[in-house]
Design brief:
The chain is mainly α. It is about 55% helix and about 0% strand. It is built from eight helices and no strands. Helix 7 packs across helix 8. The longest helix is centred in the middle third of the chain and has 26 residues.
């Protein structure tokens, strides 16, 4: 009779909260929406078939933007989607609204400037372009989109550089006038150096450790002296 009335706690059932203690509702592991579970929607893109399809989609979008620059803003939309896909769930909630609005504005600004440009002249340096889409304008968003989608999900300097450049390119539309052209031009001509430095630091852990040790802070190098008491006041 005693064994029948006694019951063991069920591990699948959440423990009862104590009276007067706030117990927030949380998602368990593997629950959709927590961003950390096995059923997270971002894990669906790891399939080889999906990655092959996305590669073909990238190639198609870039080819169309290369030959028909008026369709180039599609690459900016893809860049924003890849950036939001790579961010953490809490980062995505925080940055989604500004990034989406900035992408819309940049997609509306670029065609307006393309209407006044000669498709055979590079707007950054005025040099002759051999192809209508060879402006360097949409190559940068496409490159950043591919890197954001295919770089492994681990702590790497290259990934951080790509994320910062992608976010800056999108938010450059908030600059007045032709400010976004200056940002795109700077990143277009410095992309080689940024990616090269990131890859060297990621592929050579010894070099990365060297920079970390050089800039490290050694607490033992700081000497702390005890406070000197003030001199006694003379008796009046």
């Amino acid at each position: 009779m005693t064994d029948t009335l006694s019951s063991k706690p069920d591990p699948k059932r959440p423990a009862a909260s104590k009276p007067g203690v706030y117990n927030p509702v949380t998602f368990g592991p593997g629950t959709p929406g927590d961003g950390n579970g096995e059923n997270d929607w971002s894990g669906n893109f790891e399939s080889p078939l999906v990655r092959l399809f996305v590669a073909l989609l990238f190639a198609t979008i870039f080819t169309v933007a290369w030959e028909r620059p008026e369709f180039g803003p599609v690459t900016l939309v893809v860049l924003a989607a890849c950036l939001l896909h790579r961010l953490e769930p809490w980062q995505r909630k925080l940055a989604a609204a500004p990034l989406i609005l900035a992408t819309i504005r940049l997609s509306l600004l670029v065609p307006a400037y393309f209407a006044d440009w000669n498709p055979r002249i590079n707007p950054f340096n005025g040099a002759f372009s051999h192809m209508p889409g060879d402006l360097g304008m949409f190559w940068l968003p496409t490159f950043l989109s591919v890197c954001l989608f295919y770089l492994p999900k681990k702590d790497s300097i290259t990934l951080k550089i790509v994320v910062v450049e992608a976010m800056t390119v999108i938010l450059s539309s908030l600059l007045p006038g032709e400010g976004f052209l200056s940002v795109l031009g700077i990143f277009h001509y410095t992309l080689f150096f940024a990616i090269t430095i990131g890859l060297v630091l990621d592929l050579k852990p010894s070099v990365r450790a060297l920079f970390a040790s050089t800039g490290g802070f050694d607490p033992s190098s700081v000497r702390v002296y005890p406070a000197t008491p003030p001199p006694p006041r003379p008796a009046v």
